[in-house]
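Example protein as discussed:

>
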Amino acid sequence: MRLKGLAIIAVFFCFLTSCENAPGIENPDKMEVLPYFDLKGFVNQEIEKLDGKNVTKISRINGVSEQSDRITSTEEWKEELGAFFDADINKPSLIDSYTTEVEKDILIHRAKPEAKVSIQEIRVRIVNDHPVWITFKGASESMFYTSFTHGGIYMNNRENRIDHYELETTQKIWFLKPNNMKIQGAIN
């Protein structure tokens, strides 16, 4: 068991000190070393590639669906993918809030049981030093309110850009029916 733990630490150390800060992201000389996958930096980099691209979007709010097609600007993409910016866990206050492990080709950051954080898990599948998909799970709860969020970005590796994404949020306020919103977008 101890050997397995040392192997995981060695793999993680090699991952952190490899030639790239986070797979598929800029040259490490231009970036600071971060303790966790740089989700915010990755999404920022990918948004630049999507400026002016058409997106087919399906929005479902409490079971009512609507589909739209539109060309989206960089600023609109920042708003559309805002939940992924919010899910970034590279903040000084969260430095010791997550465990990191590698299962085959998937990097996993999980909230420690004692951590009081809203993002519970981030998973990044990495193939040939490039993210293939990224998912996150979030949850927050108070005496009057609970919220669950799931999100995913899936890459088109032939075109080296985001292919599609999804976000789903369920919110429940005490004494009210739960609200569920799901957004799926495919970039054409």
The CA atoms of residues 40 and 84 lie 7 Å apart. Residues 38-187 form one domain.
